[in-house]
């Protein structure tokens, strides 16, 4: 198919399957091709999603500069790997020097799949004047589907101007923006302080990147059911294993480098924060070990009130992500419902996890809970911690958090 400037169409009209290639071919001058991954506001929220010669791959590996020949640059795409925060991919070309796009002999953008050309947008220098950059095509999400827009638009200034246009930063003494380092050297820190968690840290990082959460700053809390029915979960080591999985998330979000922990039965029982220094054997040692703080009946509203009050004390602090673990027997539905409606106005997201139990009460119906300013809760259950792989567990834990962040920010609950 020959594409024309200004044309828009569903990407599925051209591409079948998740993998394809975009090739940018320019003749008559020297120019560099790049791709900007933008958020819903058209901004480069994470500079690691600017893919160019000096940064050839996105963190999620859904966008990769795979080849550069004399007059062509190839990008490999797997759109399903991109985090949901990436709403647009804009493919551009920019001149590093004083030439202008009017000197272009000819150029084209080619979409390829299975080594065959499926669509081509052709242009030439006479289409432009003194511009030093071009915005060529754009892939964007609409209604849950990807679409293609053919721009073919000249842009005054070079790559620096494009980076600033999309909300990025440019170093003072170079025309190419530096590659932004990861916000937290999570793997290095854990390798030094808790090496037994290194494999988990790598898997947590991948899930965070898939959800677009790699730059998120948050407080992280873990609430552990310590009622008598949880005995086997503690005795078998499942609760300690869960702690091991949650700590890398807390370190990555890295508000304070620690995981806030509460246990509860009839009352809330604050425990020491979990860190890389005390995570090994935490369940057997914190405040005398689990046998010293489990055994009564479960009263979820009591600990919920304590957690809400704890995270409300500092209104200017980052938002909180709370993982709340229960083995069921939830019966105070009305009180829990009232607390979740109240908590929706605060910067707290609640991820409820049912572990090896039943009768989770209102926790199973959070998606239909009315009266909240935003949906501030998620829930999933599993019979055993080992019924999900570590990667699957991270994906489930983080699935609804990005939507809450977006909605809470839109409502002014978080800034």
Explain this structure.
- Residues 219-397 form the VWFA domain.
- Keywords: Tellurium resistance.
- This is Tellurium resistance protein.
- This protein has helices spanning 159-165, 186-193, 198-210, 231-235, 238-253, 282-285, 300-312, 333-343, 390-398, 401-410; strands at 2-3, 8-10, 19-27, 32-38, 50-51, 63-68, 72-78, 88-94, 106-113, 116-123, 133-142, 145-155, 219-225, 259-264, 268-274, 320-328, 348-358, 377-382.
- It is α/β, with parallel strands linked by helices and 415 residues long.
Enumerate how many helices there are, as a single number.
Answer: 10
CATH 4th-level superfamily of the largest domain: von Willebrand factor, type A domain
Order of helices and strands: EEEEEEEEEEEEHHHEHHEEHHEHEEHH
Indicate the CATH class of the largest domain.
Alpha Beta
Q: Which stretches are poorly predicted, pLDDT < 50 over at least 5 residues? A: 172-184
> In terms of structural class, how would the helical and strand content be classed?
alpha/beta
Strand order across the largest sheet: 1-10-9-3-7-6
Mean pLDDT over all positions? 88
- The CATH topology name of the largest domain reads Rossmann fold
Main beta sheet: 6 strands, mixed
Question: How much β-strand is present in the residues?
Answer: 25-35%
Distance separating the two termini: 45 Å
Any idea what the shape is? elongated
Helix % is: 10-25%
Number of domains: 2
Task: Give the name of the CATH architecture of the largest domain.
Answer: 3-Layer(aba) Sandwich
Number of E-state strands:
18
What Rg is obtained from the alpha carbons, in whole angstroms? 25 Å
